[in-house]
Amino acid sequence: MAWNTGGPCPRFFIAKIDGQTFTARDHKQIFVLYRVWKTNNGERLAVDWEESVWKALKSSHPRHFHKDKRKGDPGVSVASAFSFITFIIKRLRNKKLVLAPLAKERAAICFACPMKSKVLGCSVCRSALKLAVKPPEAVEAPQACKACGCYLPLKIWIPRRLLGSSEAYPFHPDCWMRTEDELGCSVNHIGIQQSPRL
Q1: How far apart are CA 18 and CA 99, in angstroms?
Q2: How far apart are CA 97 and CA 196, in angstroms?
Q3: What DSSP letter does each residue of 121-156 carry, written as one string?
Q4: Measuring CA to CA, which residue among 67, 44, 47 is closest to residue 57?
Q5: pLDDT tens-digit readout, 123-172
Q6: 3-state secondary structure (DSSP) of residue 15
Q7: DSSP character at residue 69
Q8: What stretches of 13-129 adopt beta strand conformation (E)?
Q9: DSSP string of 105-121, one letter each residue
Q10: Domain residue ranges in the chain
Q11: Of 34, 74, 152, 167, which has the fewest Cβ atoms less than 10 A away?
């Protein structure tokens, strides 16, 4: 659901999220402050991080923030996709990527998945995402995953052990994350390759 503003505007906006209090003159700055704080702490943004910020703002300023009841595909924000890329690049230093056959198999599973989504945002930001990731081979993949907020054109190349638990997010039962966990897969039996400069 979307959020709207209206009613009396406070002089300063305050939001308490994850035990941290953020204060700004404009409510949009709270989103930026929260993203920077998470990044500086080496943490990845949760899939629903924006909703958490909106709820915190609503809690502090109940007469100014209102939920819009219209429904639609929420998609994945550009900020969530960039957060995933930043998080993975830090983990990927001097590590190797999976080989193209495994990346292609993962992409095929993602295309069939109802959790696939588009990245929301302006065309410039979406183009910047594509420039930030240069996989070793062109493999067509959906843009994002609604379950985890990951940028799939990068995720399909990452060794499973670097991606964390498949129980951390509500992945579809047929997701390759769950399947590889159940089979106890290690990409070593499929092959690995040197990671390109990201």
Answers
A1: 38
A2: 8
A3: S-HHHHHHHHHH---SS-----SEETTT--BHHHHT
A4: 67
A5: 666 677 776 777 778 888 888 898 888 888 888 988 888 888 888 888 99
A6: strand
A7: -
A8: 13-17, 20-24, 65-68, 76-77, 96-98, 116-117, 119-120
A9: HHHHHHHH-TTEEPEES
A10: 2-68, 95-194
A11: 167
Is the Cβ–Cβ distance between 131 and 153 less than 8 Å?
no
The residue length of the chain stands at 198
Residue type, 148: C
Model pLDDT for residues 47-72, shown as the tens digit of each residue: 778 888 989 998 998 888 877 665 55
Query: Encoding tokens for residue 14?
Result: 């305050």
Mapped onto helix, strand or coil, the DSSP state of residue 195 is: coil
Residue 94: exposure state from Cβ atoms within 10 A (0-12, 13-18, ≥19): exposed
Six-digit token string for 19: 């035990």
77 within 8 A of 2, measured Cβ to Cβ: no
